[in-house]
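note to self — DONT lose this again. spent like an hour looking for the file last time. sequence + predicted structure for the chain T wanted, 643 res
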Amino acid sequence: MLSFGSVAQAQSDLRKANKHFDNYAYALALENYKSAIAKREPSAETTQRIADAYRMTRQTHQAEQWYAKAVQLPGSNPMNHYYYAEALRSNGKYAEAKEEYMKWGEAMPENAENAQKLVAATDQTIKWMQQEPTAEVQTLAGVNVGGFSDFSPAPFGKGIIFTSDRGISADAKADVYGWTGRPYLQLFTAEPDAQGNWGAPTALQDVVNSEYHNATASAATDGQMLYFTRTHMVRQRNNVNPDPTSWVKEAEKPEHINRLEIFSAQKVDGNWSNIQPFAYNNVTEYSVGHPALSADGQILYFASDMAGSLGDTDIFYTTRQADGSWGTPVNAGATINTPGRESFPYVDADGKLYFASDGHAGMGGLDIFAALGQHGNWSGVRNMGNPINSPKNDYGIMFTEPGESGMLSSNRDSDNGTEDIYSFKVLKKPVVLAISTLERKQNDKKKNIEVPLPQVKVVVTQESKADSAVVISDEKGKYFMDGFKGTNYSLLGTKDGYLTQQALAKIPETAGDTIQVALVFDKNELDRVIVLENIYYDLDKWDIRPDAATELDKLVTVLQNNPKIKIEMSSHTDSRESQNYNQLLSERRASAAVDYLVSKGIDKRRLTAKGYGKTRLVNGCGDNVECSEEQHQQNRRTEFKIK
């Protein structure tokens, strides 16, 4: 009888658990699943559901344990390998994660390319974790509450406004969201005292904090306008928004989903009022949420899955019109948005855009990225690296001082899926290396021009570091990569049919956000004439001037990086003076250039000096022809060609 009673109780717990699961109440489902499996072994279906419930509540350690079981089930869904890999990666088990990504790609060939990208991203994560930390990160004392989620801080007066599910009323359990098992999200504010200690957070007044979820707010710098996110439940039609704050109140109605909306509130006589919906809310079709107002109040960024999205959710922006209304939303573009999820935008006081993404290469979960540019024209998207990012979810960044210090949200230290707010201080200031690969050509006027050279392999080595990064320039001859101020980088570029080129990027501590680095390539062709720029000599002299030495040093580097080539060094004069005079002068200048190269360690057997005097003019400025000094200068040139 006791045995039958135990089985009956297990079946009852299982029925309750499955009902909660079907209604997206994953936290409540897990409570009943735990009771059920304590009395009997879980079936394959129950194992799958427990694994999924832990994943949906972001409890990565438990999800790892249960997906390890799920992948062993007969007829297991191939996606379990992906979910298992994601949990392993979040838990810092990179080698095991790579194996599971590959198994996923093998089981689902249509995802093989994505699997390879995730393996490469995991390898990059390992490198990031091994690098010196770029910032100090610690929990924000006095604001977080253990066991609850606190996230998405934003500047608000003298302090911050943030999102929390700690509950507002004393009887918080009276209204619990089944997905998480915690109260609904609401907005809170907090301020530090003169010593920097944070006071107890206060819930925003009821007119802003409605009955359902209220989250991710952004305030105008004058403190008179507030934009924030609310959830709205609608009957399911198209895509279910996958945003982490997309939660449903009445989960017992599975035909309903929630969508996000943006609202604004205005401060009147010290109180928030005049709650207005964003003009582009459309809960029957899509979500809009996570508003981020620019410092001047003229641009509003937000996340949405509206028409025109490139992935699950994209970053959009809208511009304030002359009458104060917001213009038609515009997608921030493919540089920012991916087929994955981009959300939680933030714009600092200098106009730099930060956002969270799981579509760009990251360390796991959502990572925080920075981008340079404005509106829909962005470049140099940069992963903020370790420890701003972690193998788990990191998002909701803000700066208290641009580029120096701020706060972010993460569940990196959580075992139950809750987020905390962390403060950070930048130790190594980032910079974007904007690499250009160019080909040097001559136009019809025999003048050097530079055109983009695509698909060049560039090995980038940081000074005093043993490892290197290998990158490929795009179809425009561009590549953007992360660097740090106060650091030197060596770049070595190679492409079949071209001479190997090298450049050194010395980045001072006072550098701006972007450093331009150009690699200029010449074709590796016999008898191809290459004009050296800025090789000038004083009148009637052949001594190597300092400015000429700088250009010849570049040729030294080319010869060092291409040890098999031999060159003829030639010098040319303009038409003024006699034939014999110019011939002798050009020979002396060519010999002086060769001697300089030899003094820098180049084997003389690789070099030939040749003077052509005025026999090879590049324009019509011959004897007794009146020409400008600029035209004469075109003829006074130093060249080399591969022999």
